[in-house]
Amino acid sequence: MKGLKAGALAILFLLSALVPATTVEAANDARTDTDTAYLSEKWHAGLGTGIGALNSIKSGDIDQDGEDELIFGNANGYVHILDWNASAGGWYEDFQTVDMGGPVKGMEIAQIDDDPQLEIAIGYNWNSDSGKVKIIDGISLLAEANWSSGVSWSHTQWTEGWPYGLAMGDLDGDEEVELAMSGDRGFLWVVDTETPEIYVGRDVTFDEAEWYVDLGAQTSGGTLENTWGLTFGQFDEDEAMEVAVGSKQGWIAVFDGETEELQWKYDMDGSSGADSLCYSLLSADLDGDDIDELIVPQQNKLTVFVDGDRDVRLEDSSIKSGYGLANADLFGNTNEELVVMDGSGNVRIMGIVGDSLTTYQEWSGGYPMNTGAGVTISMNGHENPWIVHGSDAGMVVAWEITSQSSHELAWNSGAENNADQLIYSLEGGSNYGVAMGNIDDDDNLEILVGSASGRVYAFDGKTYEADWVSPVLDKTPMGIAVDDLNNNGDNEIVITTGIPSEPEGEDGNGGEGFLYIFERSGNDIVQAFKSDDIDASMGVTIAELDGSSYPEIGIATGYLEIVDATSGSTNLHGAVKVWGYGGSSYSQEWTSGDIGDIVGGISSGDPDDDGDNELVVGTSGDNRDGGSGDRGEVRVYHRSGGSYSLDGSIIQPNRFDVFGIAVGDVNDDGQEEIIVGTGEYGDNKPRVIIYDGSTHSEEFSKTVDSNSVWGVATSDFDNDSEPELIYGTSGGELFIYDGIEPTSFEAKTSALSTKAGHYGSIAIGNTDNEGAIEMAVGSESYLWLFSTEGQTNKPDLAIDGEDISYLPEAPDEDEDITISLSVSNFGGADTSKWRVLIYDGDPDAGGKKITEFECDATEEDQRDGCKALTNGESASFEVIWYGQQTSPGYHEIYGLAEDTNSPRLETRFGNNKDFTTIEIEEIPNNKPITIASLDKTILWIDESARIDAGASYDTETTNGNPDEDEDSTGNGNFADLQYRFYFDGDWTTWVNKMTQEISYSTAGEKEIIVMTRDERRKESEEITININVKANSQPIAILKSNLSDIVEGEFVTFDVSESYDPDYRVELEYRFIFGDGIYSDWIEEGDVALLYRNAFFNGPNGGEIELGESEQILRNSFGNERIFTLVNGSILPSSYGLGEGLFLLEMIDSTITSKGYNYTLPIGFEEKTYGAQILVRETSEGSDDLLVSSLSTAASITISRGENTPPVAVAKAGIFYGAVSGAFTDQLTGAKTGDEVTYSADDSYDSDGTIVKYEWVIKDSKNNVINLVGDKYEKTFKRTFNEPGKYIAILTVTDDRGATDTHQVDVTVTKGDGYGEEIVGEEGYSQIVIVGASAVAILGLVGGAMGINRMRGGEEDGFEEMFEDITPGPLELNCPTCNGLISITTTQRPIQIGCPMCQSQFVIRE
Fold this sequence. Notes:
Largest sheet: 8 strands, antiparallel
Structural class: mainly beta
Distance between the termini: 96 Å
């Protein structure tokens, strides 16, 4: 079985050491490839949070370089791939996907195609309650064909939202890989990985899937949900894999992978709900018997189904929520070990020892896994196995297993143990506190970022190495700023903490925040100050506000107080606070007091251009009562005397949560503006607003399609001497617009992670002190670093849908449409070679190409609009979409720009494509009417059939007449309408042919669809024809007999009429196997056949008889061949008594008899049972797929002997010599002495058997028994009597069953001529000589017999017994003339005897 399992799973991990290591280039599924214009991601920190949930963490050598990669998903919607650095002994990041839309919690690795690398299947929540699965290649990291946009799973009314249960493998043994998916709706789906869907649309529907199983119906468990526990395993001894599925409600179901049959089901909690949640399943051979165990974790236990047997279970109730499961042979034995990661972060290595579940070792992984544990085992690239797991906080940890009882930390994604690789987890996420500043002695700025773990990380701005990690602080670092607070020449690090949305409870706990200050101390950075609770702080800024020697620290604070949780009574609190250094210590210098509103954004600058810096803050507003309260505000505070007061009017952005605050000269007018980003207000989307710094009047406003814009900034980021307007959205996108013309788009990112730049987490500076400046952007779970490096010196072609127009404005389907497009170059390098392809529909989702515009400005005679594109320049041109190509209805017209230089210069492709919409008016036109038929109602596999749609018509194109009326050829090749046919899973193109030949290679109900369209390309309704395609199936052999018990000699009649072909396709022929070594050749109804003993059949489909071998034709007692026929009972005389049927009967003299087949009992048997069978075969009608049946069930025939009829003995005698022709009689009276009498038993007989023994006894007149010597048991013999008298012969015959009969024949002998004369031999021997010779012969015989007896150790009595038939019986002598036998039957001496052979006469006297 292990061989079977290995064979079935070999397709999953086809590893090849011959494939060279490959450097992976970023593919178009990489996050970086979707940023537009000049933005270039230089680096990022963080791996997200909720890593590996539900086992979405895998290790495997996906690129075939001999070392394992680490692949995992996270709760933020990303997939990361880490590559192994063998020299460092750790992983580095190689790839990060785009934001998939929602959590990634489904993952599997397999080999699904012919290339050497593995593929990765990813299950993720895409949008709201819609989920998708995508498969990407292990080397290119591009999506596989048919999986490019992700595949959703449609039940028609709704889709699967969380497709987290994934398994891949050759499930049904067809050498093709299937993907199984089980999501939140309680259904099990199985699709082919190469062609998951039949109809293009990027969703799999229930009728397209290979499997679509309602698990609730199968288990009788009602409506099941979250059936994420899914695994393939070998749970029995057949070749097919099994599929096991677990559900939220605790039901487990196991299905056969080939037949889809439910093998067993089990309710893990007995419907109590106490232990349900079967969210993770694993198959592993833990006991080394080549059959997998099924491992099922739940909230309060872990269960192992031994060998996949429902009724043999091992449990461990000490394991709580052990949803992280992995298996491998960790210790080099014959079985696999089980690794379990539980919800508390504990790691266990377990196995089966004997009949028990044993824990070899257990330890804490250090991080909880409440989102659903994930763990994997890496076997390649290091000496010992590594157990690798994720965590809720976003840490990835690897443990080396050094022995069965020991382990040690090998690697983690924190700054301390990452093998000096530039990969860092920002533990806990909430990476909103972001700053840049020089905190050491080098020339580079450090990039600082906070995390929910309470730590602040400082990374070198050039090398990205971790220069410093703070101790764990109270609450989340939300505000970070760097400046020299005490004028000692070294920068201090200012950190304010708090947790957004954390309320203060009735007990007074919650809503706290603190101010921390860290400073240089030699080569170390140490904590210089920590404040008491200052309330939760959402941001911090440093500026010289009061004209003193030391800069001030401005802090925004706020929280929600729960006054009475029962009534829902709450209060809002918030304040602006100023702290500073007083020469020896830090203290609060001023507070605004509680303004009754959360202060969530803060910045500083000189917006009123008075030479003094102001504090600018934004507040939340009051949306506690559903949004009817006051909206948020922007307040400006300046130093006034010894305090601070409002500077100018309070700004009302008319939105809640005005937390995006920045101050800078965004429009390059020499005076700083106030830049504001907001939240929503009711149905009103957030705004980005620019206010005049002095008058507070609104200069610019833009509504943003997001939930919040809490991160805003301005800077000359692209170094074009003009400032840019920069903002981040709650959806995770970062936008850059021209600051002078803020409607002019410049660049954007794809989704980073949610809340990009929020709470002021955008910092801009030259971190590496060279070239282009950098921008650090915080978010919910990552820190991103961008620059324009590498982009400003390359072309960047862009299409904007707003620049695509067309004429006429309202085209109809007959009109040519002129499409006008513009292509722009946003890059810093010129390009002279480019093209734009125009599509009807998204080109990445099956759009149809209309035309293209190609430009090579280095060549002459180019089309109008072709020109070289410098930075910021556009080219406009027109193309024609001809009416013959258009169709009425809604269309999306895409332009796709491409750089055609060789090699290609452009590196950014996310903005190369955009579209506009167009509605093409339909000209009134009736749809054509499709009428189609098929020339067959039943179709066989590979059999051709013809679809004929010639009766279709259109009121205009065919004037209402059938299209076939105008086809003079009659072959359907000259149609006025166009036709399209769907069959065998695919559509034909539109053709001017009204007929279509079809055939199918598989059986089943097939759907044929026919459509027509007229000269205006108006399409008809679809006409569906259903056809049953049948696969030839074996005929069924059934043999009946009229008798089951017969007496030997009786005939049994066999009937084959109940045999049948399930397909009713062809006639049948039959071959009989009678069970007694007799066979028939193949015979059809009405044919004749011979029967054979020891026949040999060779070849397929029941074989053909090979004559000339050892076969013997069955013959009758006369040696004639017995001939049989297969005859229909309906043509037989009623006297035969057979009725309806198809009977095997014997023919005699060309006449069909009523005799069937007769059996003969072997000698020595009184009874024997034979099993008669038949084979049935389809007869050939030009088909090559004819089949033969299995052997029929045997018809049991028991043959026995009847009551024995004794034999009849008939004894006769006669005299036959010379010319005399005598006659036999049982009273022979004409015999003379010396006559030869012939005795015969030839007329004896046995009517029901065979005579096996004849025995004669002859007595003379004195009742003496004559010794017959060799004639006693002969059927016929001859005897000469030399004495007159009456001789009585008694014949006894015995049959084969022991019965006997006797008959007597009397022979009366009278004296013949010469009776009493002395006999002298014809050769002159005297009687004395004969007597002497006789005596010598007798003595010789006696002596020889005695000698032989003694040699055998016999006694004298034994010797006498040897001669008991001789004495006193007749004496037999040889005739001295002819050596013939002479028998003397009397003791009378002298006696004359005659030789019966030569007629010589002799006298015996002694």
